[in-house]
Amino acid sequence: MGKGGGLLYNAETTGIKHERFLPRIGQVAKRLFLVYIILTFSLTILLLLGKMNFFEALCHSLTCVSTGGYSTRNEGILAYNSPYIEYVITFFMFVGSLNMPLIYFAFSGKPTKLFKDEEFKWFAIFVSVFVVVTSVWIYSQGIYDTVESNFRHAIFQVVSLTSSTGYITADMNEWHPFFFCLGIMMMAVCGCAGSTTGGLKMSRFMVLVKNLNNEFKKRVHPNMVALVRINGHALGSDLVVQVMAFISLYLVVILVGIIALTLTDNTFITAASATFTCISNVGPSFGKYSLHFAEATGFEKGILSVIMLAGRLEVFTVISLLHPVFWKR
């Protein structure tokens, strides 16, 4: 695959370079495919133990590990009414949100590479905080009868949104606007680089937070040289600029999408959540389109389709096609 394959491998997160654990991208692909097969097979077996038939177990395994989220039932995972199935799928959605090369290392006897990875730590803390806050919130609203059911629904929906899998086990419109704000934050960031999740990715979020922290330090100490470091390695200023430019463009696309959707009399929460769920390729949203977009007008579907393409193909790639420089030699 050569240089082109390397560029393709690093294109997953603009501005962030990934450590190559094998010299040839073709070998990398084979190892990652093996990881995917092992995870899918393991989940299939566990779902069979949860009383799913083989077809349903296989379909849900394929869409869970790849964070695709499609279900064979109209009601999704909720149709099975099984805490066991919900916990199992929650775990595999979380695993699907992680950096696949690091999962390969964990499978090959080097789990410390995964657990010492800074992005993994940030993502685990990010998910944990939102699970706790969501659990406390819905418990305070008296939506479910027991502490366990509150926690189960909270952890399932938090991991579903952050992994961009999009499975649902509850009508999140009943969780009130405070959770809508939490949900939009989760849909904006999502999982780790090197995974199939959508969103900004945790690595870019780390650069954003660390760069902002450095700027605050420079306000106090103007002559201070503050570098953005990930896993102990300093990022070049050009890479930080690329990440910040990507985030800026990402937010511009979101803003344009929200404005476009409000032109058709959608409420702000409907327009905002629909835009965020589409650019991050999550699926569910809040408001009118919480479960599906069947009622959307042709104009709305066109806008959301472009946003989904921009999110999946990376916004720089899509927007570059619209820039005059792209068409000049």
Mean pLDDT: 85
Helix content: 55-70%
Q: What does the main sheet amount to? A: 2 strands, antiparallel
Series of secondary-structure elements, N-terminal to C-terminal = HHHHHHHHHHEEHHHH
- The fraction of residues assigned to DSSP E strands is under 5%
Spatial order of strands in the largest sheet:
1-2
Low-confidence stretches: 1-11
Structural class: mainly alpha
Radius of gyration: 20 Å
- N-to-C terminal Cα separation, in Å? 26 Å
The number of helices is 14
Q: Count every beta strand, where a strand is a DSSP E run of 2 or more residues.
A: 2
Shape annotation? globular
Walk me through this protein's architecture.
The N terminus is likely disordered. The two termini are 26 Å apart. The chain has 14 helices and two strands. The chain is globular. A two-stranded antiparallel sheet has the order 1-2. Helix 12 packs parallel to helix 13. By secondary structure, the chain is mainly α.
